[in-house]
Design goal:
By secondary structure, the protein is α+β, with helices and mostly antiparallel strands. About 25% of the residues lie in helices and about 30% in strands. The protein has 9 helices and 14 strands. Strands 1, 2, 8, 9, 10 and 11 form a 6-stranded antiparallel sheet that branches. A 6-stranded mixed sheet has the order 7-6-3-4-5-12. A two-stranded antiparallel ribbon has the order 13-14. It binds zinc ion. Zinc ion binds next to loops.
Length: about 325
């Protein structure tokens, strides 16, 4: 996985732009705090998230968890170039047994969760909803590039924890991730308040020019013999400061519809100077099509296709967007 940020030929002086007061929803905002060697991305999601979650009418805890996975995906996938694809999946033994978020660069998102309604009551937080299993992140940069897959064990912790684990083990880049999802009720046309989902997230990485500054304190001794004292590493002062600033972000700030992303970044980092890059828009858009479903049907054996005929037609529902595609038996290749 790459963690590339937009090319930035940063001048030595601190660059502070007056923050825009206009909230930008459904976008990823790349930024940089060069005084602390920090680079990051901030995601704000409103209508696009609402569309992804409302299409399935998920129970609130499932919507919240899938929302977190969607935010994490935007933070990780938005560094892809051109027509790359980033897929985040979980497979676990908890009440939410399967999650998938599919991000197609530059801006398309789709997502889906499978869950057991009867078991939702047993879980009190995202970690318990997931249970034990693994998180897989796949990067597909097109037919000429090799596929990359990263795996992280899920052991009852949150997706934030899993992301930290991933960056610690695989990328070895000091990284902090924050994810927040909330429900909002605003006064609608009638007496009924209008429900909406909102989310926000922050990914910050410490990328100093001298790699030895990026040593991390929390690597455990791994395969070292039992009783070995963990090697104490002093974290770089800039990263210590960066983490403490990120630690002040509250969930309400991440999802506040009246607080623009730029203003939030300015609030966090203004003392050090933050450079904010143009936002990258995000859209809830499925990539399914009648043609794609038709060719998928062709991959089944004749007998399997025949078994799919119900009430004189073959109906295929897209799990991502719930679109139903109907085919006549002839169109589905059934004699
Ligand atoms: Zn679809």
């Amino acid at each position: 996985m790459t963690s590339q940020m937009p090319d930035s030929n940063i001048s030595a002086e601190t660059h502070v732009r007056a923050p825009s007061a206009v909230p930008v929803d459904d976008a990823v905002i790349p930024f940089e705090v060069s005084a602390l060697d920090l680079r990051g991305r901030l995601t704000r999601l409103g209508p696009a998230l609402d569309e992804l979650l409302t299409r399935h009418d998920y129970p609130a805890p499932v919507g919240k968890l899938l929302g977190e996975a969607i935010v994490l995906t935007t933070l990780l996938g938005s560094s892809l170039k051109f027509d790359g694809r980033f897929i985040l999946q979980t497979q676990t033994d908890g009440p939410v047994s399967f999650l998938i978020v599919d991000f197609q660069a530059p801006d398309r998102l789709r997502a889906y969760a499978r869950f057991d309604k009867n078991r939702l009551g047993e879980a009190s937080d995202s970690g318990a909803l997931l249970g034990h299993g693994h998180l897989a992140m796949t990067i597909d940069q097109g037919p000429d590039m090799s596929r990359y897959q990263g795996l992280v064990a899920l052991q009852g912790g949150s997706l934030e924890d899993a992301a930290h684990e991933y960056f610690l083990r695989s990328e070895q880049i000091p990284t902090r991730v924050r994810l927040a999802v909330g429900e909002e009720w605003r006064s609608g046309d009638g007496d009924k308040p209008k429900h909406g989902w909102r989310a926000g997230g922050l990914l910050v990485q410490f990328l100093p020019k001298a790699p030895e500054r990026a040593r991390q304190a929390d690597l455990d001794p791994g395969d070292a013999p039992e009783g070995t004292v963990a090697h104490a590493v002093a974290e770089d002062d800039a990263w210590v400061e960066g983490q403490s600033l990120i630690g002040t972000v509250e969930d309400v700030e991440l999802i506040d519809p009246d607080l623009s992303g730029e203003r939030l970044l300015y609030r966090l980092f203004h003392e050090r100077g933050v450079r904010v890059f143009p936002p990258l828009p995000l859209h809830a858009k499925c990539s399914c099509s009648r043609d794609a479903v038709a060719s998928m049907l062709k991959s089944f054996a004749q007998q399997e296709r025949a078994d799919m005929v119900k009430d004189g037609k073959v109906s295929v529902t897209c799990e991502f967007c719930s679109t139903v595609y109907d085919f006549t038996p002839q169109e589905a290749g059934v004699e």
